[in-house]
Amino acid sequence: MTKESKNIAKIVNTPLGSLIHVGEKKVENIKITYTKYNNLELERKEINDLGKFINDTDDKVKWLDIIGIHDTNLVNKICQSLKVHPLVIEDILNTSQNPKMEDYDDYIFLVTKLMYFNEEEELETEQISFILFKDKLISFQELETELFDGILCRLKEGTNIRKNGADDLLYGLLDAIVDNYFLIVEDIGEKIDTVEDELLLNPKKEILQKIYTLKRDLIYIRNSLWPMRNVISSLSKNDYDLIDGKTIYYLRDVYDHVIQMIDIIETYRDICSGMLDTYLSSIGNKTNEVMKVLTIFSTIFIPLTFLAGVYGMNFRYLPELNWKYGYFSFWIISIIIIILMLRFFRKKDWL
Hints:
The chain has 2 domains: 279 residues, Beta Polymerase, domain 2, CATH 3.30.460; 58 residues, Methane Monooxygenase Hydroxylase, Chain G, domain 1 (Up-down Bundle), CATH 1.20.58. The two termini are 51 Å apart. A hairpin with a 5-residue loop joins strand 5 and strand 6. The chain contains 9 helices and 7 strands, in the order αββαβααββββααααα. It is α+β, with helices and mostly antiparallel strands. Helix 3 packs antiparallel against helix 4, helix 6 runs parallel beside helix 8 and helix 8 packs antiparallel against helix 9. The longest helix is centred in the C-terminal third of the chain and has 66 residues.
């Protein structure tokens, strides 16, 4: 049973809106970072008291980043204080959700997936959820990563992102998530090149497992990117009060990146299918070579077997049986037959 199947099994027969954390506990202690900024100043710090974020009503952009979502009471407290729908809270806690977007008028809820290779070079996913308000953005992460470090650097440097609203911050975070897929797809592309070289040089049995692993990873990525495409498309095409018109243009660029990656993945899947066919053909060719050698040996021994059978018959009188040179003549004839047959096979390019 896959991790996703196990996660889904946890929520079977549970009432709607049940606060159950579905997924692995990836961090021990929850970390809450509060970032507040405008074009003049930036304030960023870890907090324990959520009251400052909840009750802050100035005109600055506020970003609450929560790392670790296994504490259902904390997630529920944050969301309820901002009047977030119970089903949204349930989706935040359920890490087996597919990427999606839901508009609740006062806020927009997003579920995205971040992919990365673990220490065993296996693909892992992390769910990152966002709730976008007019001047607030809340992000829920399963574990701490360096994915958003580029956004933090831009905030500290005072670039254009500081002049815009929370929707532009959301765009930057979504762009970072999508760009990370490029790194994953590029890594898989390099693995495909390596497997292709190994396949042409020496198609061992291990190659088959590598090809199936690559195909599985590509399907895994595609299944994550396809709903992400719908999320970005919806954000960039529909008219939402919480998203500025200028931000929509940038979201369309992110959408183009997603489409580009889906096309690359489809190309890689075709390459993997071709490699699989090549591997099976090479195995078939090896089998044919073995059968050809065995057939040649069998064919050579057919006349020799005939001669041995004739002179092995249990008759009392055979002309050459008592001949002085009979044994040597038998071998000379046999060797001549072998040489003639080998020359015939070589002439036919069977050897």
